[in-house]
Specification:
Layout: E1 2-6, E2 16-19, E3 30-39, H1 41-47, E4 57-58, E5 62-70, E6 82-86, E7 96-99, E8 101-104, H2 111-115, H3 118-131, E9 137-141, H4 146-157, E10 161-166, H5 171-177, E11 179-183, H6 188-195, E12 202-205, H7 212-219, E13 225-227, H8 231-237, E14 240-241, H9 251-261, E15 269-274, H10 278-287, E16 293-297
Parallel strand pairs: 9-10, 9-12, 10-11, 12-13, 13-14, 15-16
Antiparallel strand pairs: 1-2, 1-4, 3-5, 3-7, 3-16, 5-6, 6-8
Helix pairs in contact: 3-4, 3-9, 6-7
């Protein structure tokens, strides 16, 4: 099978499409013919040598496609089913992908949309669970990115009022997601208090940028704040830094389909690239902040809603 791999650290030019042995699912796993795979900032951090030192490395943790092999003990999906989920091996950007955790793709979305879901939905759900969001008022710093947008919509679905911090260009987008927008930058506390005079019940930091002291002030203490982006600030100010190794919210995969079908959730896909243009996807992702997910596709016919 063809797969994305790099054998040295560096820029996008180190990425290669190579032939690797076909993987096979173990107990509880399925293998899919990959139709779409998500691209995340962790991909270029790995490629640059900022996360793992191991070489060579494959890439990709989230994918969607058609089941073509089923591991022992799997009873809730069959060969030919459309599924999306996580590749624990970090090898989702390949023609064949083994998924450790997966759920059925619901009828109204295609493979590219489904591949955009796992990381953003799991990360946002994990943070909301850690904050105990069940209503109240939540402040999301960095609300217009994929994880921030997921957190906004999931919190609204839990009955929360959400205040989203983003650049003014993204304020209308946040209103569409159900948030009350405020702008980044100096004076943030005052702007939030203008729309929420009593402050907020909890705050989620998706973007970093040294904002934790303001979030602590608005939420009434460090215990009501979680950050996904500022590990140094979390240590300094006593805020929880949410990471995948402290318990993933895998349950979010099974539940997101119903919310999507009811019209309560969507994540935009910004750009789609063929698998062999992965280097360009990295250049685009590193060079700016497209509103929505970057997705790689393998087999263009599979982007429709039906199996192929």
């Amino acid at each position: 099978m063809k797969a994305v791999r790099f054998s040295r650290f560096g820029g996008p030019e180190v990425l290669e499409i190579v032939e690797l042995p076909d993987p096979h699912p173990g107990p509880g796993q399925v293998r899919i013919k990959m139709r779409a795979a998500g691209v995340n900032p962790s991909d270029w951090k790995k490629r640059a040598g900022l996360i793992d030192e191991e070489l060579p490395q494959t890439l990709g943790y989230e994918a969607a496609g058609v089941v073509d092999e089923v591991g022992a003990g799997v009873t809730h999906v069959d060969i030919g089913d459309r599924v999306f989920g996580f590749s624990g091996a970090g090898a989702a950007q390949a023609e064949l992908v083994v998924l450790d955790h997966f759920a059925t793709v619901t009828p109204s979305i295609d493979y590219a949309d489904a591949a955009a879901l796992p990381a953003a939905v799991e990360t946002a759900t994990r943070a909301l669970d850690q904050l105990g969001v069940r209503g109240g008022t939540l402040l999301v710093n960095g609300a217009s990115g994929s994880v921030g947008a997921a957190a906004v919509q999931l919190a609204v679905a839990r009955g929360a009022r959400v205040i989203g911090v983003a650049s003014p260009a993204n304020h209308e987008y946040l209103r569409l997601l159900g948030a009350d927008p405020v702008a980044y930058g100096e004076g943030l506390v005052g702007r939030v208090l203008t729309v929420a005079p009593d402050g907020v019940d909890s705050a989620l930091d998706v973007a970093g940028s040294g904002v934790l002291p303001s979030l602590i002030e608005l939420a009434g203490g460090a215990g009501q704040v979680v950050t996904l982006a500022d590990s140094a600030g979390a240590q300094e100010f006593g805020v929880r830094f949410s990471r995948g190794d402290d318990g993933r919210a895998i349950h979010a995969l099974a539940g997101i389909g119903e919310l999507i079908e009811s019209g309560g959730f969507w994540l935009p896909v910004a750009l789609i690239f063929p698998l062999d243009e992965v280097a360009e996807a990295h250049r685009v992702g590193e060079g700016g902040h497209p509103r929505g997910k970057l997705v790689l596709v393998c087999g263009v016919p599979g982007l429709g809603t039906g199996p192929s």
